[in-house]
Amino acid sequence: xxxxxxxxxxxxxxxxxxxxxxxxxxxxxxxxYSAVIWNAHRIHxxxxxxxxxxxxxGLLITGPLQGDWLCQTVTDWLGEDGTLERFxxxxxxxxxxxxxxxxxxxxxxxxxxxxxxxxELALRNGAGDLVTPGEAVVRFA
Amino acid sequence: MPPLLTEEHRARVGRSTPPRSETxxxxxxxxxxxxTRQRAARYLAGEEAxxxxxxxxxxxxxxxxxxxxxxxxxxxLTHDLPLQRQMAxxxxxxxxxxxxxxxxxxxxxxxxxxAEKQGRRGAAxxxxxxxxxxxxxxxxxxxEVHTRILR
Lengths: 141, 151
Prior knowledge:
The structure holds two protein chains of two kinds. Chain A is of the alpha+beta class. Chain A is 30% helix and 33% strand. Chain A has four helices and five strands; from the N terminus they run αβαααββββ. A five-stranded antiparallel beta sheet of chain A has the order 1-3-4-5-2. In chain A, strand 4 and strand 5 form a beta hairpin. The termini of chain A are close together. By secondary structure, chain B is mainly beta. A five-stranded antiparallel beta sheet of chain B has the order 1-3-4-5-2, with no helix packed on it. Chain B is elongated, with a radius of gyration of 17 Å. In chain B, 22% of the residues are buried. At the A-B interface, helix 2, helix 4 and strand 2 of A face helix 2 and strand 2 of B.
């Protein structure tokens, strides 16, 4: 482990929180994400269709975009002190345009033998509901 | 209630799409990095891809004539299942090494599981789809197990 990573590693302990980050995507932002992943599903840009045909409360914030925000909670915290080895997320409830989603996490385990840290992650809406939980394993190096 | 999934449907488990190769460009990485509000300089500069960059990178680019009324395209692995309203369930991803511009990568998608469930919101089919991305030498780069829910 490099010295800078070692200094951080020594101070890590289960229960510690990762910095939180709030996301309030605009409609243009959702459009750009859909364009980048070549996703033309109308629930992300056609409000009439999303509400009247598919029965949603509004335009849906894309699932894998929520996953990416959770993933950034990990990569921004980790920086260049290690590598992301595993990441998982699952969608519990929809989130719609206009909502603010806050990504955060905490350390649940630290394995001195391998340099691995296990993280529990959560993306919550303004009411505090868990929209997308996740977990990650990183390895300090 | 009769089962939604017949033996014929279940026989599709194990089927894969043909291998698809793509070369990663700095521009594609930068577009992804901006659209997802990345903060790390190496992602924004397109020097390394954010971990989830691969998510839809290897999907077919269909003809506009193949778009369905909902805007989506048919997935050859799941398009003829008896429910068709798609929702993303979640993903479990293993990263073997970062993706960088200039990498030529090959992806194979496989339908690895089908299950039907009755829930509060009616019947649903859970499809498990595995995506294996490997480099030009055949070494693994990233593996994803994705759950797609059909209602």
